[in-house]
Amino acid sequence: MTDPLLSVKNLRVELSTRRETVHPVANVSFDLAQGETLGIVGESGCGKSMMLRTLIGLLPRGGLVTGGQIVFQGTDLLSLDEKEMRDVRGRSIGMIFQEPMTALNPVMQVGEQIAEGPIAHLGFTKKAGRQRAVELMQQVGIPDAVRRLRAYPSELSGGMRQRVMIAMALACEPQLLLCDEPTTALDVTIQDQILKLLLQLQESTGIGMIFVSHDLAVVSQICQNVAVMYAAEIVEIGSVASVLADPTHPYTLGLLRAVPDFDNVKSVLESIPGIPPNLAQPPDGCRFRARCEFAQEDCATGEFPLLFTDGDRATSCIHSNSCRDAAHADPVIGSRVLR
Amino acid sequence: MSRLTSIPLPLTSDDLQRGRGSRRVSPNLVAGSVILFVIIGLVLAAPLITSYSPTALNPTQALLGPSLHHLLGTDELGRDQWTRLLYGGRVDLEIAFLAVLASFVLGTAIGCLAGYFGGWVDVIVMRVVDVILAFPFFVLVIALVFILGPGTKSIYIAIIATDWVSYTWIIRREIVAMKKHEFVLAAAALGYKHTRIMLRHLIPNCITQAIVYSMSDVVFTILTIVTLGFLGLGVPPPTAEWGSMMSDGQQFITTHWELATFPGIIVVVIGIGLSLLGDGIADRLRVE
After folding, report:
1. Which of A93, A135, A259, B216 is 20 to 30 A from B237 via CA?
2. The pLDDT value given to residue B11
3. Pick from A58, A98, A107: which is nearest to B188 by CB?
């Protein structure tokens, strides 16, 4: 097998505020192959966005990587200094954000914003930068690109702004694209267009993608593999088809059950009881224990690392068989999101 | 290529109108510009408008009162008051605009650095700003000019040394609020340097407030220079300057009211002009 594009090993991050120290990323490991799209799902506050920001070296104030490795194309990103990291950002790793409303500079023409990367990183002239901006805008499906160069973000719709942001992220032809819930703020039809655009761009450029979302349906549409994150840990990882059809962690099962079933509209929308643990003082043992229907006494203590079951699949649950059985008893699981 | 790139998303009339709405010119902007344009034009063209010298003494023509030869009369040393009013503007306006420009640039740079980097730089800068702001502005300026001795240079130093803090205060506050926006994170994620992020992304988003403030600041600075002149701490005689003209004219206020009044009126008119301009610019630059 060839070396992965990105290999994260035992990554740990802590975030100190005046009152407390939380651990938004605890012992996270995964590999991303060239041209692969990895989805990361989990509820709000489980650390998925923080992990993306760690990958690109932009933790908020008080954030600190306390352990692990982020090996990107053979280099450990954590060993780079600020200047070297700046070259990686934008040139080798691009990122798109959730809010196209606030992630563009409101007083700068979009053409200038797209051209800025090539000008700053690749030494393009202003004119060449403009030319590149037009190409990129056409590539991301912005009609009438030449005229739109001069538009300000406030003159564009949400979907158009997201396309501009994708164009900015791709401007220096990075090898890895990080997507932080890029479709969450958009309505469903625009979301669909943006997802198709990302899929098509990935096919044509072979870029590796990490796609963070809380929407299983979106992940199933765009990703080959998926990692489920709960309380700062990856609890299950594997191919989208196998994880969503055959969950081996009770949290994944809970997420799948919580997807509305439109074939059976009268049923009550299920949810996972309880709340996630406080990441300032994570509980001993399995972090999902308190909310888990399969929890036994042996879940209360010890470490719960990801254990590979078959092939590329891994789960941190030691009672994955009971979870599997429960999933198989519910024939609708998976079919709701896998279409 | 797949069908995706051709998903049609035509421009709607809504899109077009949004682009146009902000381009209208406000009456304030027009009125303010006209007033300033006329006054600055008159002041700059002074040698073409009047043939008298602003400084040459002519005791035989003292205190003549308004006439066709001397539109605003002459002062106690026989100098044409209209001429001195025009040339005085050169001194007052030049000092005011340049000192405000210098304070603006200095204060914006310091405020931007303090707000962007935060930490101890921010703490130190803001304590200095607090200390300077805590003093009454005039007291500080007068004290500085007193220490440095009267003259144009001391006026510049005194005004810049006390005025930069206003811009630092405004810009720092704006930067602190603005840097939480996602586009700043996005710029960092694109690997831009701090200087680029500050100059191209943060300052353009924060500068409106400072520009609007600078308009009223010019008025305030003119008042400061005029006050210094009035108190005898300004530009030394015989140079024509509105403050010293008022101070010299006030002893004749009962017989020759025009000597002290017209320099005052022109300061008021400039004040109105700059305020209107500031309002107009604020309307124009307001970010949607």
Report:
1. B216
2. 44
3. A58
Please answer whether residues B114 and B169 qualify as being in contact, where contact means their C-beta atoms are separated by less than 8 angstroms.
no
pTM given for the model = 0.82
Task: Say if residues A247 and A264 touch (Cβ distance below 8 Å).
Answer: no
The tens digit of pLDDT for each residue in A167-178 reads 999 999 999 999
Identity (one letter) of the amino acid at B136? P
For the stretch B138-177, pLDDT in tens is 899 999 998 998 889 999 999 999 999 999 999 999 999 9
State both tokens at B70.
């001397």
Closest residue by Cα to residue B80 from B62, B103, B60: B62
Run of H or E including A7: strand A6-16
Contact at CB, B187 and A121, closer than 8 angstroms: no
Q: Which of residues 192-251 of B touch A (CB under 8 A)?
A: 192-193, 196, 200-201, 204-205
All residues of chain A having their beta carbon less than 8 Å from the beta carbon of residue B191 are: 86-91, 117, 120-121
- B11 contacts A86? CB cut-off 8 A: no
DSSP A231-289: TTEEEEEEEHHHHHHS--SHHHHHHHHTS--TTSTTSPPP---S-PPPTTSPPSS-TTG
Q: How many residues does chain B have?
A: 288
Enumerate domains of chain B plus CATH numbers.
Answer: 26-44+79-285 (1.10.3720.10)
> How do residues A128-151 score in pLDDT, each as one tens digit?
999 999 999 999 999 999 999 999
